[in-house]
Automatic annotation (TrEMBL):
<dbReference type="InterPro" id="IPR000123">
    <property type="entry name" value="Reverse_transcriptase_msDNA"/>
</dbReference>
<feature type="transmembrane region" description="Helical">
    <location>
        <begin position="567"/>
        <end position="600"/>
    </location>
</feature>
<keyword id="KW-0460">Magnesium</keyword>
<feature type="transmembrane region" description="Helical">
    <location>
        <begin position="607"/>
        <end position="623"/>
    </location>
</feature>
<keyword id="KW-0812">Transmembrane</keyword>
<dbReference type="InterPro" id="IPR043502">
    <property type="entry name" value="DNA/RNA_pol_sf"/>
</dbReference>
<keyword id="KW-1133">Transmembrane helix</keyword>
<dbReference type="GO" id="GO:0051607">
    <property type="term" value="P:defense response to virus"/>
</dbReference>
<keyword id="KW-0695">RNA-directed DNA polymerase</keyword>
<keyword id="KW-0548">Nucleotidyltransferase</keyword>
<dbReference type="Pfam" id="PF00078">
    <property type="entry name" value="RVT_1"/>
</dbReference>
<feature type="region of interest" description="Disordered">
    <location>
        <begin position="1"/>
        <end position="32"/>
    </location>
</feature>
<comment type="similarity">
    <text>Belongs to the bacterial reverse transcriptase family.</text>
</comment>
<feature type="compositionally biased region" description="Low complexity">
    <location>
        <begin position="1"/>
        <end position="20"/>
    </location>
</feature>
<dbReference type="GO" id="GO:0046872">
    <property type="term" value="F:metal ion binding"/>
</dbReference>
<dbReference type="GO" id="GO:0003723">
    <property type="term" value="F:RNA binding"/>
</dbReference>
<dbReference type="InterPro" id="IPR000477">
    <property type="entry name" value="RT_dom"/>
</dbReference>
Length: 626
């Protein structure tokens, strides 16, 4: 629809089609004929865009002044009519008040919609760059983003100024970081796969293996933060360059060996202790909370309600046994425990090492044994751990002394009974295959035998190498070809530690950006604009010379472009009828006449049955005369 000029904003009438005769007459009545012509010239581009000449400026001013006077006269006549008719005046006043009220309501609706949109956009922006809530009872520290940059620099740890910077370093979005660290009391999603494995001493051990998305972040925390911090010299487990052999070697040839085992080692460490550890490194409470939630799990029970599975929280968040970050966290959390126990052992003449939850003391005599047992239990209790009541051992020289599965009476060695049983199982596998056999409760007997053979090589290389060669030969004989699983997990850890998404992990979908809500009137205007024909829409002003040049160079339009298809069908049917009549009656003049008549009809794009009958009669009469 063409827009009126600034001098006359009320010329168009939306109730009538813009190009109809009634609309044009109404526009002339509202202003003047000359002003309507001037508007059309501007819309079509025939009025110059540059500065008009003095004659054009004078004519323009005269036309605009005439339009203003006509409109003023029209308004005065309407007011005079209302004064003469009180009922009409009252009706007009009520109509005007209703119009103003509708306009005010529309303005209010648009302002409210704008305020809702501004709030939604601000919330969306905040959610894309910050984390302010991660669940009940775990979000207290999210309001404190202050880091100790000096402490982080002294420890050689990376500094993150905000949650968005941390997420970018991990290679994820803030939304995905929130999803993986959110703590829920009841949920249908679990980030861990839980299963049990048998223990050597009986019973089962609960393993919580993280899903790939969460495991990726735990690997990143392990490589970029945890492994950069030193652990105590007594800690032998899960430390590069240390093993169960280095854990057992200091206790070789001692008169007494004491072994303690911590009960529920990983589950006894709650997420608050992990958060405190990250804060002690120099990270803010906000980042420490997020990192601790990523490295911990919620103990839960899986229940089914109406066919839907839910995970219901049963306790406080804790370290999962099975996450790649848990062993390194325990070593760092136990530094004070190791320091106190090492000092105690040195003061009483003992040696001390710890492999995960297995603590070992040894000495050349047992004079201070009772004092060691009492004071060690006190230290362990004060550090927040609990000793396993059934796994405290005091092994003297005249009996077998075993530390983390290695006999240490004279030198590190493998238990003879276990080695004999290993050779028996290996011989059976070599003879009849792995079907129906197991090793230490593991039904994947070939992998279990290979692992134990490597353990023997680590303890006693002379005995272990021949056994490992036999296991490799059995694997080649009885197992399927090796797959690319080992390389996949190695690449998974490498990519995760660099903040790169491993293969198979896609980017989570982003939440849609909020859009402003339209009022009912705006919806109607948009609908009318969409339904408006192109011919009725505003035409941008163009140069008249360009318009004339395009009109001269444009090809002529088809004269009969609007001919109905039915006309061509009638011509075709009549032509076929004349041809058949001519061929069947051997009237070649009729066939030739039908061709001439069809060419004439196609040129004129017209058809008449009278013309059809005329051609038929004339051609038959002429053929009879010939």
């Amino acid at each position: 629809m063409s827009q009126p000029s600034q001098s006359n904003p009320n010329l168009s009438n939306s109730a009538l089609p813009p190009n109809s005769r009634e609309a044009i007459l109404q526009r002339m009545r509202d202003s003047s004929k000359d002003e309507v012509i001037l508007e059309e010239m501007r819309r079509q581009g025939f009025w110059p865009k540059d500065e008009p000449s003095p004659e054009q400026a004078a004519a323009l001013a005269l036309i605009e002044r005439e339009g203003e006077l006509v409109r003023a006269l029209h308004d005065l006549s309407q007011q005079l009519h209302q004064v003469e008719d009180p009922q009409a005046a009252l009706k007009a006043m009520r109509k005007e008040r209703m119009r103003l009220a509708r306009e005010k309501r529309e303005v209010t609706r648009r302002q409210q919609a704008q305020r809702r949109y501004d709030r939604a956009l601000a919330w969306h922006t905040q959610q894309q760059n910050d984390i302010t809530y991660l669940g009940e009872d775990v979000s207290q520290g999210l309001a404190d983003p202050r880091c100790d940059e000096a402490r982080l620099a002294s420890k050689g740890l990376p500094h993150f100024s905000s949650v968005a910077v941390l997420a970018q370093a991990m290679g994820v979005t803030v939304a995905e970081l929130r999803f993986l660290s959110f703590s829920r009391n009841v949920t249908r999603i679990s980030h861990y796969r839980r299963f049990t494995v048998p223990k050597k001493t009986g019973g089962v051990r609960l393993i919580s293996a993280p899903m790939p998305r969460l495991k990726r972040l735990q690997y990143w925390i392990l490589e970029q933060i945890l492994l950069k911090l030193p652990v105590h010299a007594a800690a032998q487990g899960f430390v590069a360059g240390r093993s169960i052999v280095s854990n057992a070697t200091p206790h070789t040839g001692q008169a007494v060996v004491v072994n303690f085992d911590l009960q529920d080692f990983f589950p006894s460490i709650h997420w608050q202790r992990v958060s405190g550890l990250f804060q002690s490194m120099g990270y803010s409470k906000q980042l420490a909370t997020i990192l601790a939630l990523i490295c911990s799990e919620t103990p839960c029970d899986e229940v089914a309600v109406d066919g839907a599975h839910y995970f219901v929280q049963t306790g406080v968040r804790r370290l999962p046994q099975g996450a790649p970050s848990s062993p390194a966290l325990t070593n760092l959390l136990c530094r004070r425990l190791d320091t106190r126990l090492s000092a105690l052992a040195q003061r009483l003449g003992f040696r001390y090492t710890r492999y995960a939850d297995d603590m070992t003391f040894s000495a050349a005599d047992d004079n201070q044994l009772a004092r060691l047992l009492w004071q060690a239990k006190q230290v362990i209790r004060e550090e927040g751990f609990t000793l396993h009541p059934d796994k405290q051992k005091v092994m003297r020289r005249h009996k077998r002394q075993e530390v983390t599965g290695i006999v240490v009476n004279q030198q590190p060695a493998v238990c003879r009974e276990t080695l004999r049983r290993f050779r028996a199982v290996l011989f059976q596998v070599e003879q009849t295959g792995p079907t129906g056999k197991h090793w230490n409760g593991n039904e994947n007997v070939l992998a279990a035998l290979a692992g134990y053979a490597q353990f023997i090589v680590m303890v006693d290389a002379e005995k272990g190498r021949p056994l490992l060669a036999r296991v490799r030969a059995a694997q080649l004989k009885w197992s399927a070809p090796e797959t690319a699983r080992s390389s996949y997990y190695r690449d998974f850890r490498t990519s995760s530690s660099k903040g790169i998404a491993p293969k198979g992990i896609t980017q989570m979908a982003q939440r849609a950006i909020p859009i402003i809500e339209l009022t009912q009137e705006q919806h109607q205007q948009a609908k009318q604009s969409a339904q408006q024909p192109n011919s009725q829409r505003a035409v941008p002003p163009v140069d008249p010379d360009v318009v004339l040049l395009e009109q001269q160079q444009a090809p002529p339009l088809a004269a009969h472009a609007d001919t109905p298809v039915s006309v061509y069908l009638q011509i075709a049917v009549a032509f076929l009828a004349l041809m058949l009549i001519g061929l069947l009656s051997l009237n070649y003049l009729l066939s030739a006449g039908s061709i001439v008549w069809v060419c004439y009809c196609m040129q004129k794009r017209k058809f008449s049955w009278w013309g059809f009958l005329l051609v038929l009669i004339v051609c038959r009469w002429l053929w009879q005369q010939i």
